[in-house]
From TrEMBL:
Species assigned in the record: Halopseudomonas formosensis
SUPFAM superfamilies: Periplasmic binding protein-like I
Keyword entries, A-Z: Signal
Pfam families given in the database record: ABC_sub_bind
InterPro entries registered for this protein in UniProt: ABC_transpt-TYRBP-like (IPR007487), Peripla_BP_I (IPR028082)
Transmembrane parts of this sequence: none
The protein's name in its UniProt record: Putative ABC transport system substrate-binding protein
Segment forming the signal sequence: 1-27
Length: 324
């Protein structure tokens, strides 16, 4: 028979277990390795959102979570090296942010769970074969946008635009997909696409200058080279009165006139919640890839003035955030 003291100790242990903020699923230490192709505000926000979702679920660095994060600094060879290192470390989940990093990780492992984020078209990138549960070690969250809505915004910002310029990296699957779709879409809207390749970040400014006089507006997608060097593109836009419309809302804070895009922090939170499901025992192949939800309109009135655009009151009234 237990002594009264033993009884109280047992009851106390039970009470502490019930009061613990962590479920048994998060009591054991888990390991998450995250990587991004490059550092820029949107991808940094994704990373921060992933961390927030993990913490919200009870995974705390230094307690029950081992976290490591590395960026490839825009170099696909480095992305491959990081992917192979992470696979060797055998974490419970690898979070791969942006298409080149996701492709490198998926090519490096068929067993360790992979959650991708900030990937426009995971099918074209050959990460998964459909929007259904993959049955493999891969799932994640796409930041794919409806391009017809993007081009409607272009027409609202520059109503008489007929020639849309786009600077992009022809080596990034995300960007190639957008270019191919715009080639088909724009003629149906009375516009044409004028392309300028920027295979490296240092090429972005020169590519933008090559469009001056040939286009009425420059549209930028979530191309990582372009976003990383956005200030060089803004300088061209301001110097030549060439309007810039982005798909990344952070680019509006950096000098684009407008963007209809997702909140990349919340995108990261969404991806982080997928990672939590995997950490808690779900197979990644049983979780269908997701898309981010609601879009928000951001406007920059000082950029509009610098680039020779007068924003309509209707557009201003519909903005979620206005930067002056």
């Amino acid at each position: 028979m237990k002594s009264p003291m033993s009884k109280w100790l047992s009851l106390g242990a039970l009470a502490m277990a019930l009061a613990s903020p962590f479920s048994s699923a998060v009591a054991d230490t888990k390991s998450v390795a995250a990587t991004a192709i490059v550092e820029h505000p949107a991808l940094d926000s994704v990373r921060d959102g992933v961390r927030a979702a993990l913490e919200e679920a009870g995974y705390t660095v230094g307690d029950n979570l081992k976290w490591q994060y590395q960026t490839a600094q825009g170099n696909t060879a480095t992305a491959g090296q990081i992917a192979r290192k992470f696979v060797g470390d055998k974490p419970d989940v690898i979070v791969a942010i942006a298409t080149p990093s996701a492709q490198a990780v998926v090519a490096s492992t068929k067993s360790i769970p992979v959650v991708f984020a900030a990937v426009t078209d995971p099918l074209a990138a050959q990460l998964v074969s459909s929007w259904e549960a993959s049955g493999t070690n891969v799932t994640g969250v796409s930041d794919e946008l409806e391009l017809d809505r993007q081009m409607e915004l272009v027409k609202q910002v520059v109503p008489n635009a007929t020639r849309v310029g786009m600077v992009y990296n022809p080596g990034e699957a995300n960007s190639v997909v957008v270019v191919e779709r715009l080639r088909e879409l724009l003629p149906t809207m009375g516009m044409t696409l004028v392309e300028a390749a920027a295979p490296r970040t240092v090429d972005v400014g020169a590519a933008a200058r090559s469009l001056v006089g040939k286009v009425d507006v420059i549209y930028t997608s979530t191309d990582n080279n372009v976003v990383s060097a956005y200030e060089s593109l803004v300088k061209v836009g301001n110097d030549t009165k060439t309007p810039l419309v982005a798909s990344d809302t952070d680019s509006v804070k950096r000098g684009a006139i407008a963007a209809l895009g997702i909140d990349y922090y919340q995108h990261g939170v969404q991806a982080g919640k997928v990672a939590v499901r995997v950490l808690q025992g779900e197979a990644p192949g049983s979780i269908a890839p997701q898309k981010s939800g609601e879009l928000s309109l951001y406007l920059n009135r000082s950029a509009a003035a610098a680039q020779g655009v007068t924003l309509s009151q209707q557009l201003i009234d519909s903005a979620a955030e206005i930067i002056d």
